Amino acid sequence: xxxxxxxxxxxxxxxxxxxxxxxxxxxxxxxxxxxxxxxxxxxxxxxxxxxxxxxxxxxxxxxxxxxxxxxxxxxxxxxxxxxxxxxxxxxxxxxxxxxxxxxxxxxxxxxxxx
Length: 114
What we know:
By secondary structure, the protein is mostly helical. The protein has a single domain, classed as de novo design (two linked rop proteins). Helices cover 74% and strands 0% of the residues. It contains four helices and no strands. It has helices at residues 4-13, 26-45, 50-76, 82-108. Helix 2 (26-45) runs antiparallel to helix 3 (50-76). The protein starts with a helix and ends in a 6-residue tail after the last helix. The relative contact order is 0.18.
């Protein structure tokens, strides 16, 4: 999770360049999606069983996809340069890959008796 947080934080930082009229629209949505990734991983890791943890990881993966769409919309509207979008997209892809690996690892763990 320590690596996923900076990657998603960069997605949040990218929203600083968005216009003010997007503050309660695309800016807010992109920030919520980026925060949601790490918050869902943290919350899921505190749950009692692996099934619940996987459910929260699944939500985090959905938020990573939501962030991708938000950043693409921002690029297409001219709020992000192609270079900035490329950097953020690489970080987002990295966070997604790590989250997916965590999901697979949790899925493979043997069920432990309480």
